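Input sequence (260 aa), recorded before submission:
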Amino acid sequence: MAETLYDSFIADYYDDSPVVAARQDVRFYLQAAREFGDPVLELGCGTGRVALAIASQGMRITGLDLSGRMIERAAAKRNAVSREARERVHLIQGDMTKFDLGEKFRLIIIPFRPFQHLLEIRQQLDCLACVKKHLGPGGRLIVDFFQTDPRRMHDPQFLEERLVSEYDMPGGHRVVLTERAVAFHRAEQRNDVEMIYNVTHADGRKERLVLAWTMRYFFRYEVEHLLARTGFRVDALYGNFDRSPLKDDSPEMIFVTSAV
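Predicted structure, token format:
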């Protein structure tokens, strides 16, 4: 995972994007935290979107992220909540493939794709090994992936820039968000992708900001084998955050697991 990926302009635009703001996962992770208990560890916590919601419900959570800028944004948001909630959130800049926090957790979560930035099998195994080391007795790991749309593995239409959303930001900025695949690497189960932020600033100045990265896509049984290889069993598998079963047209693959 490139250390500079989210240490860029994206930290300033992340929370306001409808792709993020409209995501339906926070309630799911809140329910999981209530069910399995705290303390909770979130890997790839970003700007604290999930972590702060969990803390606001009275549970202790540690958020870890590789990006210093994302952690700074999370810290600023933490400072804006109540003192009680603020004291329940611990933020750490670190690598999800090699961390040692000296603490055990009842629940470890990896929401909204950070595991899919781990391009190599060794990174994936190292992350899961670190998770297992940090799980307390009876603890759970929950990790979500998108269920791969096979068209996005090869169809040239996805090489064309397409509209994702248009939205306004505080300060009078207008954003037109587009995306495209730059290259398909089916043999490696990776796509090179770009998200393009076409920004019109309050003073009329226009800017085109491009976030480029490589995304690893996974399949159901590949994930199950990775989990089994590192000593986890799948307790539940959902196709969306309403806990519906995984089907052919499900947008998500959400694995609820425990160590064996």
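Checked by second reader. The chain has eight helices and eleven strands.
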